[in-house]
Amino acid sequence: MIARTEVLVLTHHLSRTRIFGTGSNVTRDSVLVRLEDSDGRVGWGETYLVPGAVTAAREITEAITGTDADAAAAELAARPDAHRWALAAVSIALDDLRARSRGIPVSDLYGERRRGRVRAYGSSRGYLGGLSPEAAWTDEAATIWDDGFRAMKLRVGRYPLEDEIDAIERVVSAAPLMTWMADGNGAYDMADSRRLGAALEELGFRWLEEPLPTDDYLAYAALADELSIPLAGGEILESAGETRPYLRAGSFDLVQPDVSICGGIRGVLDIAEAANDAGRFAVPHACSGAIALAATLHILAVLPLPPDAPKWAEPLLEHDVGENPIRTALLTVPLTVDDGWMTIPDGPGLGVDVDEEAVRRLAA
Q1: How far apart are CA 295 and CA 259, in angstroms?
Q2: β-pair partners for 354
Q3: Which of 201, 268, 299, 315 could crosslink 257 through cysteines, CB 3.0-4.6 Å?
């Protein structure tokens, strides 16, 4: 039985502004859900700090206090009208708690493990004020290589396209041999998206992510049809039902559901199933803290992949490499990358232990 619940807002003020093609931020924030059962077991969940998430998470957790964790999980799964971001944090925490009570990994709640480790790619911190894109990317590529990554996703879209393409070419040619992707953060129009996609294909990039504004995913269909490089996107989509029209339209070759946005692990797997039905593929998005990262690893443990799938559809872990102690300081034993790979935890629950002192230090 769920005896105690808590919703916490964690905030870290960055030492340098994080700059993207279409915006910037000065903090890293997460909403954590902590559920404790009557036997003292604790389950953790995480989502992004967005309007309404904290209030909704508190309402949901108050409603499930005093109930059985399995019953609560089943009841929440039948609530499509719930705030999906808040629901995600609660659902992850319930999965963590339910799996711990059984002494099994969270992934076992969703099927047989297909893999025990996955390749991880470093998801760029973005631009740095005072440094050219080439200088920032070169430095970052060297750093993440030393940290064990063998793949990197650049964040592009802030400077003139031709200048950035030239910088990308120089960075890739000078860096160690890695797999590359690029995220446009919605910064381009259709013509520049075509030019960027063609240039990245020439450089052997695995995919181009969200070059067009994300308020009109249907517009991606024409671009996907024209480009040879796979087009990825859809990280803000909240359910399989919301995603299917874009899959039917051909908006994405690769859809990127986020466990903290689409209602939890089941939400990601439902979107992946919808992608498979449409002849497309799914690789999860992840850009928050350690708990969401662990949940994404458990998704990747069971994520199906057809035997004839192309190489670019291989299950990969997106691993943000920007400054964020909510990711790097929250666990008693951090998740680490070794020569491009991350082992998927196989202990009870999410398989990670949260440092509650670190949580309290970061709680706003």
Answers
A1: 7
A2: 331
A3: 268
Short-list 202, 257, 246, 244, CA closest to 224: 246
CATH superfamily of domain region 109-343: Enolase-like C-terminal domain (3.20.20.120)
Strands 316-320 and 23-37: unpaired
Q: In the 3-class helix/strand/coil scheme, how is the chain assigned residue by residue? A: CEEEEEEEEEEEEEEEEEEECCEEEEEEEEEEEEEEECCCCEEEEEEECCCCHHHHHHHHHHHHCCCCHHHHHHHHHCCCCCCHHHHHHHHHHHHHHHHHHHCCEHHHHHCCCCCCEEEEEEECCCECCCCCHHHHHHHHHHHHHHCCCCEEEEECCCCCHHHHHHHHHHHHHHCCCCEEEEECCCCCCHHHHHHHHHHHHHCCCCCEECCCCCCCHHHHHHHHHHCCCCEEECCCCCCHHHHHHHHHHCCCCEECCECCCCCCHHHHHHHHHHHHHCCCEECCECCCCHHHHHHHHHHHHHCCCCCCCCHHHCCEEEEECCCCHHHHCCECCCCCCECCEEECCCCCECCCCECHHHHHHHEC
Tell me what pLDDT residue 70 has. 96
**Per-10-residue mean pLDDT, the chain, length 364:** 97 93 93 97 98 97 96 90 96 98 98 97 93 94 97 97 97 96 97 98 98 97 97 98 98 98 98 97 97 98 95 97 96 97 98 97 90
Outline which parts of the chain fall under CATH 3.20.20.120.
Answer: 109-343
Amino acid of residue 358: A
The β-bridge relationship of strands 208-209 and 231-233 is parallel
| pLDDT tens for each residue of 96-144 | 999 999 999 999 999 999 999 999 999 999 999 889 999 999 999 999 9
pLDDT for position 78: 85
Provide CATH 3.30.390.10 ranges for the chain: 2-103+356-362
Residue 79, pLDDT score: 85
Phi, psi of 63 (to 5 degrees): -70, -30
